[in-house]
Each structure stands twice: as C-alpha cells, then as structure tokens.
Design a protein that fits this description.
By secondary structure, this protein is of the alpha+beta class. Helix content is 16%, strand content 40%. It is built from two helices and nine strands; from the N terminus they run βββαββββαββ. The protein is globular.
Length: 171
C-alpha cells in the first residue's frame, strides 16, 4: 500500500473535509503544466536515487501541485512519513528542493476525473465558500493532490484540492 501524509479528520461534510496534518517533507520542482510531466520526472528521478545519498525512496501519494492564478506553479512528491526532513536526502538537481511542511489544518474537496483548470476553478470556488461557512480563514495556496497514476481511467481517479486554513477567531 502506498503511504500518504498522516492526518486526523476534524470534520467531514462530503465532499468536503477539514484535516489536521502532521508535518511532512516534500521534494518540489517548479512546473507550469497541469500534466506535471517536467516536475514529475525530476521528482521521480530523485526517489529512484538521483540524490546526494544515491538512496532509493518508496513512492508515496499524493503528487501535489501548487496552483496560482494562472495555473500550475510546482509539482512535488510527498516523502514517506517516517522520513523526517533531515532523513530525506538532498537533491543534486538544481531544479529540485526539499520543503518542510509543518503541521497544519487543511480544507479539502474530493473529486474524481482527470483535472482540467476550468473545472478546478469551480471546485476552488465551492471549497472557498465552504471554508467561509465553517468559520475558517484561508492562509495557504491552493494545491491539487493526485493519488493515481495517469493511466487510471478518470472516473476512478482520486483527487483533492487542499487549502490551508485557521479558525477565524485566530486571525
């Protein structure tokens, strides 16, 4: 079974969830394509041993894209939960970097299909409305989390949009 970042479910209101994630590490590359081929390949090569320790690392899920107003900004692999930041090898490719993600609360909307930007924007708007109605404030960027390989049919895919949030009383 493929490992995923560890979290505790705070609230479930299908297809929305609030989750408290434990800290984890990403290996991230700049990217600009929703298909994520460039960034994906760099991160895949990293876990295949192209790192400063020549260490192979097991594949995890999801592959995470940070999105901005115009589209994809980065593609990242989540490192296995047992690998603290210091245990993750350093990239030898200049276009890759290790990123520590501290524990946080994330609002999530779950969906299936092969993501397209116009559809993602509709899910984003609905998620933001749900966050507002739950009494939370957005403090992080929009992220697309993909859990399946590209060859899985769209209707079977597991995808999520993530946004880091805090309760409004903390703002």
């Amino acid at each position: 079974m493929v490992q995923e970042p560890k979290y505790t479910l705070i609230k479930q209101d299908n297809p929305y969830e609030l989750r408290h994630y434990q800290s984890y590490t990403l290996v991230e590359s700049r990217d600009s394509d929703l298909r994520g081929y460039g960034g994906f390949q760099l991160a895949f090569d990293f876990i295949q041993g192209e790192n400063d320790r020549n260490q192979k690392i097991s594949m995890t899920a999801p592959v995470v894209n940070r999105l901005n107003e115009t589209g994809v900004e980065t593609t990242a692999f989540v490192m296995p939960p047992e690998m603290d930041f210091d245990k993750v090898p350093s990239p030898i490719t200049p276009n890759l970097k290790k990123v520590y993600i501290p524990e946080r609360v994330v609002a999530v909307v779950k969906f299936s299909f092969s993501p397209k930007m116009d559809i993602l924007r509709r899910y984003e708007q609905n998620l933001k409305e749900w966050i507002e109605n739950q009494g939370y404030h957005i403090i992080g960027p929009l992220q697309l989390a993909r859990y399946n390989p590209p060859f899985i049919p769209g209707f079977l895919k597991r995808n999520e949009l993530w946004i880091e949030v805090i309760p409004k009383e903390n703002t």
